[in-house]
Amino acid sequence: MSNRREFIGTGLTALAGLTLLPAINSFANIDNSYQRTAFAKPKLRFAIASDIHYGQQGTPYQENTENLIKWLNADHAKNHLDMVIINGDLVHNRPDLLPEIKTKYFDRLNVPYHTIPGNHDFADAAIWKKVFSYEDKYTVEHGDVTFVLANTADTKGTYVNPDNAFIKASLDKFAGKKLVFAILHIPPIKWVKEDGFLDSPETVELLHSYPNVKAAFHGHDHLLDGVRYTGNKFPHFFDSHIGGDWGTAYRGYRIVEVDDNYGVYTYQVNASQNPLLNSDRF
């Protein structure tokens, strides 16, 4: 597996714990088991995965996608998932494959799922609505927890700022909710020069301006599986990758749990059970 980026800038936490609401960012054990310390049973538990790159030549994309469905259904059977979010790059430069990945794979998930485009999906609102019956920006409510999802690329794969007017209207609408999470495939800030991320200070300011917006979740960079921060410790979580020809040595997804007091616990699952989590080549 190739490594597209030779350096990951400062601000990344992959293995260390952190406090968020409170929340913990950590890895599950090699067999994906773990011990809940914050609470016995969450009121909301969801998985977030990204970067399947279905259709990328030279990669086992069918096997990777099949594994994702197997892993998530097994997780649901063992611990219960309320929903799954697939955060961009479902396909690899082939929007014509979106109906196939939906019907052949996603529709076999045993839990509700939600998707959002990435830069390799080459999709806009019309394409997304035709395949998934909703547009490329929308909200999902789960009781007092709300998700705001927005596209960060166009039909040519160019990075574009999310629709900030939509984000603001959504955050205004849900200002009374206990928790709001933002789902954006491409992060809205360049932490270091080498980052292939967006530079959208307006988006960052919006995320910082509403006290109930507690975290953002991103895909896009297959090497990132931890958390970076903006402002006064606002967390942006990553979830490694499922497919593609570069990234972390393992393939996995992130679990997020919300307790009765709206505390959040999150950890990264090493779903392929490859114990090699960090490596360097000189």
Automatic annotation (TrEMBL):
The organism's place on the tree of life at top rank: Bacteria
Annotated ranges, domain Calcineurin-like phosphoesterase: 44-222
One family name in Pfam for this protein: Metallophos
SUPFAM superfamilies named among the record's database cross-references: Metallo-dependent phosphatases
PROSITE patterns: TAT
Record's signal peptide: none
GO MF term (any one): hydrolase activity
Protein name per Swiss-Prot or TrEMBL: Metallophosphoesterase
Species of origin: Mucilaginibacter pedocola
